[in-house]
Amino acid sequence: MEFTQRLPSEIFISIFKELDTKTLYSLSLVSKGCNTFAMDNHIWNHIALNRWEGKQGMAEICSEPHNLWFKKAGTWKKVYSIVEQEARRSELNADDLVETTWRFKFNSYPIPHVGSPNFHRNGVYTFSGVMDGQLPWTFTKEGRVRVDQFPPLTPYRSTADWSLKMRNIHVTFASIDHNCFRKKLYQFNLKLVEELGLDPSKYILQPPKPSFSISSNSIEGVDENDDENNQENNENNDENNNEGEDVAMDHIMVLPSNHVFHDDDDDNNDDEDQSENDHYVIFLSFQD
């Protein structure tokens, strides 16, 4: 008799829930009984929810019951693999840019969030609250994102919270929310429902839709420094390689007073004299 049959299955499930994914993969090769437990949906459901906690784009997914994923053995393991593969994707496509809510900051100025930058599907970039008009955006051959004649932005994904980011020597874009995981799992659900011959109306919700106009209050507490040190050297190298490109541009941005930060020691004195209608002009010179 195989050893997995000598004890109640609940005991093995409780034990396997405490194992890491590599150990589970190894145990799945030991015997047929071990493979059954190593593929168990309840075990991978437990592992997945713990892994996804606090990751950007996963809150809605974690809160749903996902009865569909319990319909077939091994489904939760497949879902876990799909999410892990997507979490390692660093290159961006047009959907990522257009369907993501972005926050923006200058790398060298004490302003954590400015305006609402948006990339539109027709190749137009707008930045409400900071600039009027439109700028063109496009992808470079290397997969970076260029806005007008500014230095191209190198995309990457945060390993801490799975947010999307883009950075050049001057600025950093970071996602407040994105649909990457929801879109992947929506497509997976469609195929699974068809494979099982189930009624899609009972298991498939509407496709995920992008959400814009998130206020600056929703980004409080976000780590501004996540993964940026690893990208800074790459960006400096990129700038050196692009010295011959025409990237010089001068801009004047008028920011409302609530976007300007003062030293703590001067707060009490300055606030009394400051009018609500006061504005500060910041001259930004992006010169090679």
UniProtKB/TrEMBL annotation:
Source organism phylogeny: Eukaryota, Fungi, Fungi incertae sedis, Mucoromycota, Glomeromycotina
Composition bias type Acidic residues, residue spans: 221-244, 263-275
Protein name: F-box domain-containing protein
Annotated InterPro entries: F-box-like_dom_sf, F-box_dom
Annotated stretches, region: Disordered: 207-244, 258-277
All residue ranges annotated as the F-box domain in the record: 1-47
